[in-house]
Fold:
Amino acid sequence: MNRTSLQGELLAEFFGTLVLLAFGNGVVAAVVAGGNGDFLMISFGWGLAVTMGIYVAGGLSGAHLNPAVTIALAARREIPWSKVVPYTLAQLLGAFSGAALVLLDYSKLIDRHAQLLVTSGKFADFIAAKNSLDGIFFTHPKIDLSSGFMDQIIGTALLLFLIRAITDNRNNPTLNNLGPLMVGLVVVAIGQSFGTMAGYAMNPARDLGPRLLTSLGGWGMTPFTEDCGYWWVPIVAPILGGLIGIYIYDFTLRKALIGKGNVVMVPN
Structure:
């Protein structure tokens, strides 16, 4: 493995994931703490965050920005397993850093919103009110742990299945450099259709990085103890879902396309 090449790939994964989380957590902060917009704004904000992250990292690393994607591609032998840990660490650090930018920018507004929650009688004290705002940075299950687990498997399976379809040159390849935009729209679609049950993390780094940040930034162990210890679900379930999604596509549609003898098309 070329060390210089790997360093460039890791930088790309770091900055791509940083951009993803900065815009993603930022739009949630704008809606929740700032009172601007609604869930539709959050969905499109996350979709554009994914698009911008892919544009940042695509040329060097392929813009995984997600350990579930990295592991799925390694399972399909499209990247070496030796890259999984370095890529995952770069993604996790990028997610932590992107969330840190949001916390730095929005910290006073988050505190003010928490105080408003106290004065309105919705919470008895400031700490409880502020803890209720940790969802700006990471996800929570709407019902319970098991429903969140199933939701994350389904959402990430759809994500990998659709990414595979969009990037398969034997299928209907996107023109020029529109792939990142299409993947961003996939995230919007999943958010609108499957985002209610557990916040559609679909990415272990996207959820764990901000959890670590908020734990160090004043929330203590709450991010890891609330929701019956839900923190591990957005790590394990997306990995399983990603594997399911990529294998379903590769052994159904991709196999059929190859069997049909489709010529690989190169976008203009």
Notes: The chain has eleven helices and no strands. Residues 84-119 form the longest helix (36 residues). Residues 264-268 have pLDDT under 50 and may be disordered.
